[in-house]
Amino acid sequence: MAWRSKRSVSEPSAPPTVVQKFGGSSLATPDRIFNVARRIAETRQTVERVVVVVSAMGDTTDELMALARAVNAEPRSRELDMLVSAGETIAAPLVTMALHGLGIEAISLTGFQAGIRTSRVHQKARIVDIVPQRILDELDGGRVVVVAGFQGATEDLDITTLGRGGSDTSAVALAVELGAQECDIFTDVTGVMTADPRVVPSAHVLEMLDYTEMLELAALGARVLHPRAVEIGAAYGMPIRVRSSLEVHPGTLICRSQGMEQRPVVRGIAQETNVAKITVIEAPDRPGVAAAIFEALAAEHINVDTVVQNVSHRGRTDVSFTVAATDLAHAESVVQKAADSIGAEGVQSADDIGKISVVGSGIMGTPGVFARVLSTLAENGINVEMISTGEIRMTCIVARDRVADAARALHAAFELDRA
After folding, report:
1. How many Cα atoms within 13 Å fall on the side-chain side of residue 209?
2. pLDDT given at position 361
3. How far apart are CA 207 and CA 295, in angstroms?
4. What confidence score (pLDDT) does residue 260 get?
């Protein structure tokens, strides 16, 4: 069951409400928590109703996951959700306490208290309903509401989490449900950039992106914003602004494309190294065989990305696809069972690969983009193992240790270093 807001897209909020989300790096230390509280206080001077969504402090989630696996190599998903959701549950009251220290009335709420109801899929839950009455009551009482992001609860009151980056999803969904004018995503970067600045020093901030471009960048490895948050923003026309919590900068506005303005064909380069490849060798080339493989993966909630099926020879074919490297062990066992059931020769896997992608809404109407990508990679001695294309993006699977080289080469080839 998918969540659909009960609020009309055109229905205004009265009075105006602002939703701000602060990521874990923005809350990593007490000093940064104080800084976030000051930013919220500045907003409160001009907007009466402020809702804040927070992630866990710094690397808390990773530390909790490591702690879980230290006591059990294969912890159950329900208990993992109970454990890792504590990170946001800790961050929310700390931000609230900092606001109290500045003389601002505020209250912290868990995802469940904020009215976020989810599916029963632990660690990858989806929002099925939002009942924000508690938030509205607290706003009516003149308080800033600080919500623990990333989490919700099922009908059975089991705590669930929305997947890594899920606090973005919490924030945008709440912004829609509360009728906010905009959802501000505060992070440790200035905005959405043309590439990862740690890899491409000449990368610069984009002033504006269309939802479709941001969705592709996010799905292909640009970690500044979670793809599901962009999907919700696009579905309800909710403007999302990505900006820095550490400096004053307008950041990047993500919205529906305005007019027919001239802009570069390629808008950004995305990279991802959490990638693994699985190949089903010599599967029978008949209807339903590929479906059996991918249905088995879908049943285990394992996402599949780039897919290539070779030309059939003697009634047999190889099927290759990519999954997240973190899902590889689970995916291998699922695919092996499926391969046995369909009579395939075997299964092979590799986890030394990565993805490099070019994204831009001008790609589909501009001849020669794909040729330039491939020639640029070839000129730099980078071999392409698999290719996947869409209307506004091209993705190449390359060796993991060449991903950074590919990002720099493509950024230069498409002249994205020109601000």
Report:
1. 30
2. 85
3. 40
4. 45
Q: Two tokens at 13? A: 């909020």
Beta bridge partners of 244: 187
All residues at 6 or more sequence positions from 289 whose CB lies less than 8 Å from its CB, including other chains: 283, 342
Structure tokens at 97: 């306490």
Euclidean distance between the first and the last CA atom of the chain, given in angstroms as a whole number? 43
User: H or E segment at 67?
Assistant: helix 60-71
For the chain, what are the domain ranges?
17-255, 268-413
Cβ distance 71 to 112 under 8 Å? no
Instruction: Give the three-class secondary structure for 130.
Output: strand
pLDDT beneath 50, residues of the chain: 1, 10, 13, 260-261
Residue 258, SS3 per DSSP: coil
Question: Nearest Cα to 402, choosing from 274, 273, 269?
Answer: 273
CB distance 137 to 174 below 8 Å? no
Report d(CA 54, CA 26) in Å as an integer. Answer: 9
For 228, residues 6+ apart whose C-beta sits below 8 A from its C-beta are: 126, 162, 163, 166, 168, 169
Output the pTM of the full model: 0.83
- Choose which CATH entry (3.40.190.10, 3.55.40.20, 3.40.50.1000, 3.30.2130.10) describes domain 268-413: 3.30.2130.10
Of 21, 47, 55, 11, residue with least CA distance to 174: 21
Nearest to 374 by CA among 402, 399, 394, 401: 394
Q: For 133-139, which contacts have Cβ atoms below 8 Å and span 24 or more sequence positions?
A: 134/109, 135/51, 135/109, 135/174, 135/178, 136/178, 138/107, 138/109, 139/17, 139/49, 139/51
In 357-391, which positions are buried (b, 16+ CB within 10 angstroms) versus exposed (e)? bbbbbebeeeeebeebbeebbeeeebeeebebbee
Q: How many CB atoms lie within 10 A of CB 201?
A: 10
CATH code reported for the domain at 17-255? 3.40.1160.10
Which residues are paired to 313 by β-bridges? 316
Two tokens, residue 106? 């505020």
Helix residue ranges per DSSP H, 179-305 = 211-219, 227-236, 289-299
